[in-house]
Write the structure tokens for this entry.
Amino acid sequence: MQDKPGNCNLWNEFLDLIRKILTIPRLVFLVTTVTLIYFTILLLPGLKWRMEGKLLPSLTQTKVYELNSETEHKKLHTYIDGRLTSENEINTTYKDRNIMLWYVPPRYVNNTPNLEPIKACPERNCFTTTNKKYMKDAAAVFFNVQIMSIPQPPSRPDPKQIWILHDTEPLEDFYTPWIRNNVFRKPQWRHLFNWTMLYRNDSDISAAYGLVRKKTPNELFTRDLDLLVKNKTKNIAWLVSMCNNQGKRMEYVKLLQKYIKVDIYGACGTNWPRSKDAEFHQMINSTYKFYLAFESAFCEDYITEKFYRNYNGDYILVARGGGNYTKYIPAGTFIDTRDFNTTKDLADHLHYLNKNHEAYMEILRKKDLYISMYERLDTVVNNNIVFIHYQYETPALCEICYRINNLQIYSKTIPRVDEWFDKKLCYPPSDLK
């Protein structure tokens, strides 16, 4: 809060009067000391706020670039992005440890027999493990839907223990028919869960695949984007491993190829081994102007690593899926197929951008002001990487850590978790024309 000018003038006049009256040095010292103490007490809250504000640049705000409060990613709290504390520091900070147990982990969670501290959160007392011996002490327990096949639920040692139903994929009959017979739908299971943790924005814990935010001044650097683009020799690339799926993306691309050339790599085109993933992205980055980020299913909020992982490339993404892209990603930094009535209309627009350098550069320069945040999660067996998953999971884990440290606010039970899954948020595509 700013001081009022009138009050400042009166105070200065008062001090001048005091200085004229107080000619005895000791008395001057005494009054000055009292005055300083008085103002220190008044300014302490503001000083604390300024100190905290000084720390903010070292934090990553888990917001979607610059959205208003109605559409921002409301579930995620601020978390520390860079500073890693030692386990000893964490142990000495809190006596009580909050254990988060992956009772039924997804395949990208590695076997973790010991307690591993989550080092990226403001709350420093949370640990993860896959060791079921910690079940009796766990504050939160994860059950992954796709892997879950336990007929009967385990014993819950404490009624306050939080059970979380987790997954990263759409879980509806249309997309995954097997889901209708999953054990979480059984009467003995469906009333036991407290929170949901999925990519969906209406989850208790929203575990997005990624996050796009504005670059900080330190992340902005000058480079010759014009020269980079002029050196590109090809138009559109697409890497795909599943040729047939509910999103019918292959059918869409075949229609698109009637009007514009699309180079397909992976299982459905020119083979490119996964072991050379880094080389592939370097090749795409230096050679192609556009990259297809096509989802395997049309589901609300379902925007995956196909978009977030490729957003930082020096090319323009063409997005296709059921997610509301401009809710999470700045408009004008990518191309959405929904903005075109037919595949021919899309092809015409891509031809236009390919021939009009400035129109293309306008999109690329705007995109260069933003950065996509995501994490690479490797599954390691016998020192070999056997599976790679891309997910921005740290904010979700920090959200859980925050909630179990404030359980009096967030404690609840979902009466019928199966009904929450049956909201029919997936649908067949209608753009195959």
Summary: Residues 1-6, 36-94 have pLDDT under 50 and may be disordered. The two ends are 59 Å apart (CA to CA).
